Amino acid sequence: MVDRLRRIIYETSMNPDLQKRFITEADEAQYIPPVHIFENVYIGNLKSVRKDELMKLGITKIIIAGINLRTREHSDFDCLELRIEDTLDQNILKHFPDCISFIEKDSAKVLIHCQIGISRNSSILISYMMHKLNLEYDDAYKIVKCKYPKANPNWNFANQLRRWHVIRQNK
Q: 102, 61 in Cβ contact below 8 A?
């Protein structure tokens, strides 16, 4: 039974079509208030972008990790829009330097979000934590997961984050 569950989990993590079937309509519609993770960085999903709430928190910048996710709620914020799909062939690594520069450009508070709030947003946040604190992937992931339990980079993004660590170490 355990082997069968492991196989199902593995197959699901390798197949984006199967991943989508496990995301329910309730997950897609769920509001997640922005979660403060580190210094000036918050994480959430598309439903976290509520202008009044973000302004109360002092958030002025948003990283949008997805395609066609910009809404009128984004209009009063400085946004970095990344055309990233949550797939097993998407190159997210190429966006890490721009995201880090955007976060570090000033001391403004930043929300990182994607559609559902699981993979793309946490991958970007983990890359920033790895950069800022000189951490390996597993350590940065544990920190983020502790504060934001929904964090779960897909298999492809996790491998790219591990590669990011090696690239950074070789500089």
A: yes
**pTM (2 d.p.):** 0.83
Look-up of token digits 């597993």: 138
**Domains located in the chain, CATH noted:** 30-169 (3.90.190.10)
SS3 139: helix
Distances (CA, A) of 22 to 45, 89, 91: 17, 19, 23
User: Cα(108)–Cα(119) distance, rounded to whole angstroms?
Assistant: 24
Q: How far is CA 116 from CA 57, 69, 158, in A?
A: 21, 11, 17
Q: Is the distance from CB of 63 to CB of 111 less than 8 angstroms?
A: yes
C-alpha closest to that of 154 among 28, 4, 12, 21: 12
Residues acting as catalytic residues: 114
Instruction: Give the Cα separation of 111 and 45 in Å (integer).
Output: 9
* pLDDT tens-digit readout, 17-51: 544 444 444 455 588 899 999 999 999 999 999 99
Alpha carbons 32 and 48: distance in angstroms, whole number: 5
